[in-house]
Amino acid sequence: MSQASIQQQNDHRKKLISIIMNKGSGHRTPEAEPIHELLVNYFTKHGFDVQLHLAEQPHDLTRMTQKAVAQHQQRSGVIVAAGGDGTLNTVAQILLHGSIPMGIIPLGTFNYVARALDIPLAPLDAAHVIVQGIQSAIHVGCVNQYIYLNNASIGLYPRMIEQREQDNSRFGRFRAVAMLSGFAVLMREHQKLKLKLSVDGQIEPIESPLVFFGNNQLQLQDFKLELAECAAQGKLAAVAITEVTRFQMLTLIARLQLGTFEQAPEVTAFCAEQIRIDSKARQMKVAIDGEIIQVKTPLHFSVAQDALLVIIPEHKAQLKK
């Protein structure tokens, strides 16, 4: 047998790690080494056969993940999503209900998914979790054919994201820019949506500028919402607000800080198994994990419980038992 054949056979015995990363992330280490090179070297040193998939454009992520899944059909290993929560969502959409676990290297602005799972934000520390961690199944929110790991919303929130992306392109991708941009949108006049909600079969007509669904318990806790417990139980956690003035909006923002948001008369909270939203519009803009998607109505919201395998720290797995 030739040396090349022996090497190929040895590589095939190794566990396969496929890294899915948006090239536009542009993250570098303090030593100016590109993150993807750092990760490839780290996993290689730990005995893995590493395949790197660098997407030139965000829409390439789906195709690359599908290619990686095909490679993993004959070999055990992990598909690693390296990027922000939007990248994680794209990879998770392909891995949903499958047997291939997803590893997470958080490279975004807020990194709610990683933080909720106690995955370190430093790339090499997160890589260590992928090498030494435990597989665990997590809940995933669903709206029609799409999933959300953090949240999905209609109305104001999609507008906030659109404005945030415009401001990010001007001022840079910083938390302060995102927060100030969102605040500016909230202070404008808003058109209310005329909707019909079916909450576990009970019809509730509503006029609202914002309906928000949260799946990430940590994010809901950051918003000081009691609905965090609802999400932890694998149910739909949602809030809707009525049409409000600028002063009422300021009051609601203050209530968020005080932890009394859900008690405001302008707020309706839902904890349900299924929610359907009907609208006269044939499709609606839905913000899904920070990305804007046009989704045909009616919108069907649900939770797929224990639907996605992820690699989490061993101590986090012990807490879940």
UniProtKB/TrEMBL annotation:
Pfam families: DAGK_cat (PF00781), YegS_C (PF19279). Signal peptide: none annotated. The keyword Nucleotide-binding applies. Residues 12-148 form the DAGKc domain. Keywords: ATP-binding, Kinase, Nucleotide-binding, Transferase. One of its GO terms (molecular function) is kinase activity. This is Diacylglycerol kinase. It comes from Aquirhabdus parva.
